[in-house]
Amino acid sequence: MTARCTLGIWLLAASACSQDYVHVYLQGSNTQLTASPVMVSVAVYGGGARTSFDYIARFRDAGAADTSLKYTDFVLVLDGVTAETEIRATILETPTRWGGDARVRTSGGGKDIFIDLHNAELPMMGTMPLSENKGGTLAPFEDGVVVAWADTAGVTVREEPTPDIPAFRPQVIVPDPGATRVKIASRPVETTIGPDLFALVWRGSDGNLRLRTRRTPNMVSGPIDLGMGSDVHVACARKGGSFDLVTVAQESDGIWATIRDASGVSLARRLVAGPDPVSEIVGVVAAPVDGFVVVLRGAAGPRLVALSVSDDPTGDPRPGISMSGDPLSVALSSDGALLLVAQRQDPDDALMLATYFVGALDQEPPSPQRIAPLSRVATGTLSKVAVSACVIAWPETRDDGSGAIDLRFHHLDARGHPIGDSHLLNAFSGGVHGLPSAACATGARAYTTFVEAMTTDDAHGEVRLRRVPQLQLQP
C-alpha cells in the first residue's frame, strides 16, 4: 500500500524503501485496542505541509525490538523533508478515545519511533469565554480534582473524585453570566490523601471581587465579598501554618494581599504595590513557612515581592526583586522550596521556565530552562501558559499551514527541569485549543483542563479535561 501527499514530500510504504524513513510503532495494552480491529487515523505534518491517512489495524503481540506492549506499525518515508515532522495518531471508534504523538527529524538512515497511546481528553459539559485567559481553572482536591470556570450561566464548579472516569455534573454556584477572572487553588499535595481545602475567586459582573472556600468533609464558606477591584488571585498554604490562604486583589488604591483562615475570614492585610495604571498580578504562591510571594508586572518592570505574616501592616510596600523575563504563570515546586515562573525571554527568543529560591529570592537563581521557541508559541486569545510542580503546558501554532492551534506539554522534575520530549496535550486535531491549566494530584498523576473551539473568533469554547500521559522515553 502506498499513498503520496499531494505536495509530494511524504510517502507511506509497507516497508522501508529509502534511507530516510521512520518505522512507527503504536503501542497499547488496553483491551479496547487489542480485542478487535480498530480504525487508526494518522496525520503527519511539518514545514507548512500535511498529509493524513486511515487504516484498519489489529494490534499484534509484542515481538518488535524494544517494545513489550502490543502494537500496530507502519513506515513513513521522509525523502527530502528537512523540517521537524509531527506524527499524530488517534483512535476514535472505541468506547474510550485514544491518542499519541511524536516529533522526529531524520538525517538519513532509518529510525524506530515508539508512540504510546493514552486516553484522550474528556468533555466537562461546560463552555468558557475565550477572553477568560487570566486564571487557573483546575486544582487537586482530596483524591481527585476540582474544575471551575466562568460559564454562560455563571460561576461553575465541577468536583471529580475519580477524574479518569468523570461521573459528576457541573454546578452553577453563582448565577452571574457576567462573572470573569475565575481562579481556583488548593493546598499543596503533601500526602497520599490529597488537599482538604480549595478556594475559588472571581470578579462579579457588578465589579466586586468574591471568594468561596470548600473544606472536607463538606464545609462551604461564601461567597465572601472582597470589595471592588479589577482582578484577584488566590493561593492556599500548607496545613498547620499561621494562615490557610491568601487573596491578592487589584484595587483602585493599589494591589493588596489579605491572609485568611480556611473559612475566608480576614486575618491581616498587606499593601503589595501602590497605584500603577499598568500594573498586573501574574500570580501568587504561599511559601512553606508563614509567607507568600506575589509576581507582578508594572511600570517598574516585572518583579517578585515576598511578604511575611510578621510584616508591619502599615509599612510601605517593598520594591521587590527584578526579573529578567516577562512572567506568564507561576507555581511552587512539590517541596515548596522553589518558585517556578514560566516567562517569555525575548533576547533568547524562547518560552523559558525560571526557578527562584522561595526562602532567598535575592539569591542568584539557577539558569532558566528553555521550553519552546517563541516563534512557535501561539499568541492572541488562546495564548495562556500553565505551569504546575510537575508539568508545563502552552499553545503552539500547528506547523502545517492551517493556522490551527494545538497545546503541548512537558513533564518537569523536582527542580523544574523539563524531562524527555514535549508532546501534544489535545489528542483531537479539529479546531483550536488553548487556555490550559495544570495540576499535580496524588499518586504521581497530573491533569490539565483547556478549551476547544472551532476558530479563534468564537466567543466561547468547550471545556476539556485530560489526564497528562505518563512520561515516555524513546529507547
Give me a quick take on this structure.
The protein is mainly β and 475 residues long. It contains one helix and 38 strands. It has two domains: 3-119, Sandwich (Immunoglobulin-like), CATH 2.60.40; 122-467, Methylamine Dehydrogenase, Chain H, CATH 2.130.10.
Describe the fold and architecture:
1% of the residues lie in helices and 54% in strands. Residues 1-18 have low confidence and may be disordered. The two termini are 28 Å apart. The chain is globular and about 70 Å long. Strand 28 and strand 29 (338-345) form a beta hairpin. It has 475 residues and is mostly beta strands. It has one helix at 31-34; strands at residues 3-4, 11-13, 20-28, 38-46, 49-57, 70-77, 85-91, 98-104, 109-116, 118-119, 122-129, 138-141, 144-151, 154-160, 171-174, 180-186, 197-203, 208-215, 219-228, 231-236, 245-251, 254-260, 266-273, 280-287, 291-297, 303-308, 321-322, 326-332, 338-345, 350-357, 369-373, 386-387, 391-397, 405-412, 418-424, 432-441, 445-453, 460-467. The protein has 2 domains: 3-119, Immunoglobulin-like (Sandwich), CATH 2.60.40; 122-467, Methylamine Dehydrogenase, Chain H (7 Propeller). It is built from 1 helix and 38 strands. The strands form 9 sheets. Strands 1-2-6-3-9 form a 5-stranded mixed beta sheet, with no helix packed on it. A 5-stranded antiparallel beta sheet has the order 5-4-7-8-10, with no helix packed on it. Strands 11-38-37-36 form a 4-stranded antiparallel beta sheet, with no helix packed on it.
Strand order of the largest sheet: 1-2-6-3-9
Kindly name the structural category: mainly beta
Terminal residue distance: 28 Å
The biggest beta sheet reads: 5 strands, mixed
Tally of DSSP β-strands: 38
Q: According to CATH, what is the topology of the largest domain? A: Methylamine Dehydrogenase, Chain H
Domains, number: 2
Radius of gyration: 23 Å
Number of helix segments? 1
Summed over residues and divided by their number, the pLDDT gives a mean of 88
List unreliable stretches of 5+ residues. Answer: 1-18
Helix content: under 10%
Using the alpha-carbon principal axes, give the shape.
globular
Strand proportion: over 45%
CATH homologous superfamily designation of the largest domain? YVTN repeat-like/Quinoprotein amine dehydrogenase
Multimeric organization: single chain
Give the C-level CATH assignment of the largest domain.
Mainly Beta
Assigned CATH architecture of the largest domain? 7 Propeller
